[in-house]
Amino acid sequence: MKKSLIVSIILIWGFGLISVAQIPNAGFENWTSVGSYFNPDGWGTMNNTTASSGVFTATKGTPGNPGSFYLKLTSRTVGASVVNGIAVSGELNPATLQPVSGFAFTQRPASFKGKWQHMIFGNSQGSLSVTLTRWNAGTASRETIATANKTLAGMAMSWAPFTINFVYQSGNAPDSCIIVLKASGSNPSDQDYLWVDDLVFEGSVAGISELPDFLNKLTIYPVPATNILNIDLDIRTAGTIQFELRDPAGVLVKSGNAGFLSGRTTLVLDVTAVGSGTYCLLIRSEQGMVARRIMIL
User: Same domain for 59 and 93?
Assistant: First the structure.
């Protein structure tokens, strides 16, 4: 029996010049002394675990960019293994290297920005990720509202700005946020590093809104989909149309470029190889973006 799906959420990016603060110790100016080392206030690191070996993966860098300090994350050898340089905006589980909790946050920013330097000595790149969630009383579980993810590439040997856009999967407001910064990937090398400073959320994204200006009409069928997903577009302003299909964690599952289009057209996506579940379909043009939830059986 096919499950029904209410295609309910249409989102548009709202890129403004509004800075959304609220990231705890976003400039890493505040540190607390813990005996022989310092921890950045509001951030969980591996320092408490590696301190017994006299090794610290999160250290205070100076001068900041801007300010007095910045966060230096360095993957370090402890015994027979290399410990990833990780920082979490909240509490970190040192055994699983996963965040336990974040911080209260109720806004819907468009992007996560800051400054970084980074380099690896092996082949396992670090990453930055942000997850906005809310407690869903109906399902008694956490619902992902949006994600912003970036795997590092190459190296940045001097301070450089970065911007990571959020991908929204819900029109609801979040109630919490977790930021995870990693110097290395799943196979860390000694001395891999990621330095960060001046973190900020910027812009805002509307909750539920009408179609963006470049579209007159959008129809997606069948709902739910099995092998083929049809996307009927009535394009008001001609432009290059791209699509992305992302899972609930924001991971890219399928993407493509439909080319320069105008007027009425139908995109046909083969989703045979896509696993069953609920996904976020994003359709982009130079003039904006629209996102809808879809279900694949």
Answer: yes
Query: Is 7 a member of any domain?
Result: no
Q: What is the pTM of this model?
A: 0.68
Q: For the chain, how far is it from start to end, CA to CA, in angstroms?
A: 10
Residues 154, 267, single domain; the answer is no
Q: Whole-angstrom Cα distance, residue 9 to residue 204?
A: 16
CATH number for the domain including 279? 2.60.40.1930
| DSSP letter string, 78-115 | ETTEEE--EEESSEEETTTTEEEE-EE-----SEEEEE
Domain span at residue 145? 19-202
Claim to verify: residue 190 and residue 50 sit in the same structural domain: yes
CATH number, domain of 24, equals: 2.60.120.890
273: left (phi over 0), alpha (psi -120 to 50) or beta: alpha
pLDDT tens digits for the chain (297 residues)? 222 222 222 222 222 334 455 899 999 999 999 988 999 999 999 999 999 999 999 999 999 999 999 999 999 999 999 999 999 999 999 898 888 889 999 898 989 999 999 999 999 999 999 999 988 887 788 888 889 999 999 999 999 999 998 888 777 889 999 999 999 999 999 999 999 999 999 988 765 445 677 888 888 889 889 999 999 999 999 999 999 898 876 778 999 999 999 999 999 999 999 989 888 888 888 877 787 878 898
Q: Which H or E element spans position 234?
A: strand 228-246
Between CA 82 and CA 80 the distance in angstroms is 7
Angle at 100 between CA 88 and CA 175, to 5 degrees: 85
Domain membership flag for residue 14: no
The total of structural domains in the chain comes to 2
